[in-house]
TrEMBL record:
GO terms for molecular function: phosphotransferase activity, for other substituted phosphate groups. Keywords: Membrane, Transmembrane, Transmembrane helix. It comes from Desulfitobacterium hafniense (strain Y51). Residues 4-197 form the Bacterial sugar transferase domain. The chain crosses the membrane at residues 7-30. This is Bacterial sugar transferase domain-containing protein. The keyword Chaperone does not apply. InterPro entries: Bact_transf. The keyword Methyltransferase does not apply. It holds the Pfam family Bac_transf. Belongs to the bacterial sugar transferase family.
């Protein structure tokens, strides 16, 4: 077992057990706040381009993902889809629920991704887990980010998060893959703690 996988399990499994009471509270809050499932599931592209299901606490109205995909498909048909200019997350997005706004600001919506870490489809640190519609637009250079499993946090998350353009995020992801080391992962995890506590650029 490599360092990266060992670190993932050492942190993720105890954390899952520790946060179980908080998990229950968040599920109840989401269900009371708006109709629909508490856990959001979506297909993302992982290591070597393999699709997987990502888990997050739902922060938007139930049909938000369907509406977004339909918008992307329409823009593609019209030849107007530009992955870098397309806005997936807006600061004052009307699709975000009351509980969702708080969960995003505190990054608590990411907690279910611990399940992805345990089942091996994600890592604690890595490139951003991207949707298929964006991966289809990758250049050969950008596809290098698929050489490592996606992470809950990464270089992009500690250097701008939602404020970054897609191109900027991809540059950070490729940089991470090219220069990966155990020390880099530990440094990113340490910086992530402070980024989450400050709640900067999280929406």
């Amino acid at each position: 077992m490599g360092f990266k996988r060992l670190l993932d399990l050492i942190i993720a499994i105890p954390l899952l057990i520790f946060i179980s009471p908080l998990w229950l509270f968040i599920v109840i809050w989401i269900k009371v706040d708006s109709p629909g499932p508490a856990i959001f599931r979506q297909q993302r592209i992982g290591l070597r381009g393999e699709p997987f299901t990502i888990y997050k606490f739902r922060t938007m109205v139930p049909d938000a993902d369907r509406v977004m995909k339909a918008k992307i498909e329409q823009l593609k048909k019209e030849g107007k889809f530009n992955a870098d200019e397309f806005v997936f997350q807006e600061k004052d997005d009307p699709r975000i629920t009351g509980s969702g706004r708080f969960l995003r600001k505190t990054s608590l919506d990411e907690l279910p991704q611990l399940l992805n870490i345990v089942n091996g489809t994600m890592s604690l640190v890595g490139p951003r887990p991207e949707v298929p519609e964006i991966v289809e637009q990758y250049t050969p250079e950008q596809r290098q980010r698929l050489n490592m499993p996606p992470g809950v946090t990464g270089l992009a998350q500690i250097n701008g998060r939602s404020a970054l353009t897609l191109t900027e995020t991809l540059k950070y992801d490729v940089q991470y893959v090219k220069n990966w080391s155990p020390g880099a992962d530990i440094k990113i995890l340490w910086k992530t703690i402070f980024v989450v506590l400050l709640g900067k650029d999280a929406y």
